[in-house]
Protein: QRIC2 protein
Organism: Piprites chloris
Amino acid sequence: DQQLLQHMEDRVRKVQEDCEELSLVSGNLQKDCEQKQKDIEMLFQSLETLKKDKADEQNVLAAMAVKADKAALGSKVNCTQFEASMERLDQRMQEMQGQVSGQNQHWNKLQQQLSNVMEKKLDRQELKAFHKHVEETWQKSIKELEKKMAESDSAAGMSKQLPVPFTCLSCDRTVKTQVPG
């Protein structure tokens, strides 16, 4: 009996030691599990931050792709040359407009003078037919002049917009815009 009792006590001690060891191991495992859970949460937070940063980076890269490369832009157009050309073109257009308006004023003066002369000279009865013929010829000349003026306006691009397809300097996309001046 004694031996059996001793054997049972040894077994109980052994089981207690195993329980204590198991309790220590389970405590360590629980601590490790909690630490790993915290690490996983930190990884998820880092992952979310990286996703946001990557989205921002993609936006920046997309914006950079849209913008023009300065070296390529310099080879396409020299800004000072373009501005100088546009200024010269504007000056020439203003000179042409001045000439056309000067011609209009000159023709209006001439028409008024001729009308005055005709009224003074052609008041007689026998010259009525001649007066009518001169007026018809005068009206035809005025219509032809107006027609030529309209053609010269459209040829110089003064009353119509130029049909030149402009392109964006940065992305070469076609831009519909009004011609300056």
